Amino acid sequence: MIKGLKKWRLFSLLAVFAVFLAGCGQEQLSTFQPAGQVAKDQFNLLLLASGIMLLVIIVVVIIYLVALVRFRRSKLGEDHMPKDVEGSHTLELVWTFIPIVLILILAVPTVYYTYKLGDVKAMGAVDEDGNAENLVVDVTAKLYWWEFEYPDLGIVTAQELVVPTDEKVYFNLIAADVKHSFWIPAVGGKIDTNVENVNKFYLSFEKESEGLKDGVFYGKCAELCGPSHALMDFKVKTLPRDQFDDWVAAMQDTAENPVVANADGEEVFNQSCIGCHAVSGVGESGAQGPNLAAFGDRNRVAGFLEHDEENLKAWIRDTQKHKPGNIMPSFSEDQISDEDLDALSEYLLGLKVAK
Ligand SMILES: [Cu+2]
Predict the structure, then answer these.
(1) 241 in Cβ contact with 166 (< 8 Å)
(2) Rounded CA gap, 338 and 211, in Å?
(3) Is 66 exposed, middle or buried, given 0-12, 13-18 or 19+ CB atoms closer than 10 A?
(4) Mean pLDDT across the stretch 215-238?
(5) What domains does the chain contain, in order, with CATH numbers?
(6) How far is the CA of 291 from the centre of ligand 1 (A)?
(7) How many whole angstroms from 103 Cα to the centroid of ligand 1?
(8) Torsion-angle region of 325 (φ positive above 0: left; ψ -120 to 50: alpha; else: beta)
(9) β-pairing verdict for 300-301 and 305-306
(10) At what angle do helices 89-117 and 37-70 cross, to 10 degrees?
């Protein structure tokens, strides 16, 4: 009976481990497969720290086992008295010196990288014509979604961050309501987004997201922020510079040439939704709801639902069921008929900028 129970326990432990480890091999969200220099530096620090800890654990366990085996009373006899050591210079030096060396090995690179990875001096750099030399993205975290503004390009988007590969991208991060934390496991972070102050850092994206599962890297909120914290996901699309420039131009074009896949849908949208949602990608952060200019290109609805018509409609009908505590109202059949919802969905799914 007891034996069976033990086996069962071991089995559940292994099962939990397996579930845990299942996330490790996935390139789009694994810290263990760094996809940029920042992630690599952070990963190496992780290895160093884990290595030192492992070393300490192994040495301590070995000493413990040796003591256990060699100094058994049954072996040494009932009358054995161990040697009384008092004030041993050698011993004291050993147990002072070794930890200091270990801490130094850990501290020097940690402090070095903390400063290196927080170095945003190049953020405001401009060339001769006064154009910004580096891409800057202002991130605003809100309950429970993410807004990405590109101040130098005059565009704004949400839920899906689009960035060029192989260059440093600088971030200003802030929260609109409560503390959140910005984390792209495969690329770097996490860094808190606070309400009172702007945090700054940079990341570099060295792998194109095309070809990954869903064609994007996964981003997360890493600070418990409310009932839908676990659903506060975003995605990151990384493009070669020329394709990124095309995307920017297409976003800028949405102001002049909006896509209207369904005119009735646009009308419904203008009646019920436009107070909170913009459909032009030209603008600034600060809207009540996510900018929908590129909604048709996203691969999730509200950051986490599969991106299809069915989920979109289900979302609009009952937002609280999907993301408890979010501030978008639900729209019942009295407010938007099924027919109007069809038109609205077609309109929304047609809001695309990518070719
Ligand atoms: Cu959050």
Answers:
(1) yes
(2) 37
(3) exposed
(4) 95
(5) 28-78+86-117 (1.10.287), 132-355 (2.60.40.420)
(6) 18
(7) 34
(8) left
(9) antiparallel
(10) 160
Ligand 1 geometric centre to CA of 223 (Å): 6
Question: Hey, what amino acid is at 289?
Answer: G
Q: Which residues contact 218 (CB under 8 A, 6 or more apart)?
A: 28, 29, 184, 185, 186, 233, 235, 236
| Separation CA 34–CA 70 (nearest Å) | 45
Longest CA–CA separation in the chain, Å:
97
The structure's pTM equals 0.88
Dist. CA 222 → ligand 1 center (Å): 7
Query: How far is ligand 1, taken at its centre, from the CA of residue 146, in Å?
Result: 9
Q: Tell me how far apart the alpha carbons of residues 262 and 270 are, in angstroms, rounded to a whole number.
A: 12
Residues 6+ positions from 55 with CB-CB distance below 8 Å: 102
What is the distance between the alpha carbons of residues 309 and 294, in angstroms, rounded to a whole number?
A: 15
23: pLDDT confidence band, cut at 50, 70 and 90?
A: low
Per-residue pLDDT at 1 exceeds 60: no
Query: How far is the C-alpha of 234 from the C-alpha of 158, rounded, in Å?
Result: 8
**Nearest in space to 183 (alpha carbons), one of 157, 129, 146, 227:** 146
Cα-to-centroid distance, 233 and ligand 1 (Å)? 9
Q: How far is the CA of 219 from the centre of ligand 1 (A)?
A: 11
Q: Distances from the Cα of 70 to the Cαs of 58, 65, 291, 350, in angstroms?
A: 18, 8, 70, 76
Cα(247) to centroid(ligand 1), Å: 27
Could you report the per-residue pLDDT of 160-182, keeping only the tens digit for each? 999 999 999 999 999 999 999 99
